[in-house]
Specification:
The protein is mainly α. The chain has helices at about 20-40, 50-60, 65-75, 80-90, 110-135, 140-155; strands spanning about 65, 95-100, 105-110. Helix 1 packs across helix 5.
Length: about 170
């Protein structure tokens, strides 16, 4: 069980509250959240791999993206990205269209079905997360929100980070 120390936890101010100890505890919590996230995605109307979901979300965020940019964004090779897009297009989630200015370049767009599938996954994930949060005390939820805000602020302003590491 993940024990991150609660409001009344006197251990939260002791030597066991160092960055390394807390990082380990958060890693455990993130692993459990990832499992929850994955299960929710697998219960969606169409089962997709994490790579497929990431590709669809990337294209959703940048409609008209080309294959090279998608491969770079997913940190995968161009042939792998091409096969991934072949499978997504065969499932009716993605369409390729010639670039209006460069005939050799192909743009990637979500289909209406692809947008619906991503919406279904997002709804299921939000519901799974809301269910877990509902089991927490209001003070714990507020502390979690404050802690996450602080974490994101620190990560985004820490020297040597550009906010994209690990994506």
């Amino acid at each position: 069980m993940t024990d991150l120390g609660g409001p009344g936890d006197h251990r939260a101010r002791g030597p066991g509250d160092g960055p390394e100890v807390v990082a380990s505890q958060i890693a455990d919590a993130v692993e459990k959240l990832t499992a929850l996230w994955s299960v929710a995605a697998q219960e969606a109307s169409l089962r997709l791999s994490l790579h497929q979901l990431r590709a669809l979300r990337t294209i959703q965020a940048t409609p008209g993206l080309n294959l090279t940019a998608l491969a770079d964004g997913l940190d995968i090779g161009l042939p792998t990205a091409s096969r991934l897009c072949d499978r997504l297009a065969a499932a009716g989630l993605l369409e390729r269209a010639p670039h209006p200015d460069t005939r050799r370049e192909v743009q990637l767009w979500l289909t209406t079905h692809g947008q619906h599938v991503l919406g279904d996954v997002a709804d299921r994930r939000a519901q799974a997360l809301a269910t877990a949060l509902a089991a927490m005390e209001p003070a714990e939820r507020a502390a979690l929100r404050r802690g996450l805000r602080g974490f994101l602020t620190a990560r985004d302003t820490a020297p040597g980070t550009d906010g994209t590491e690990g994506r």
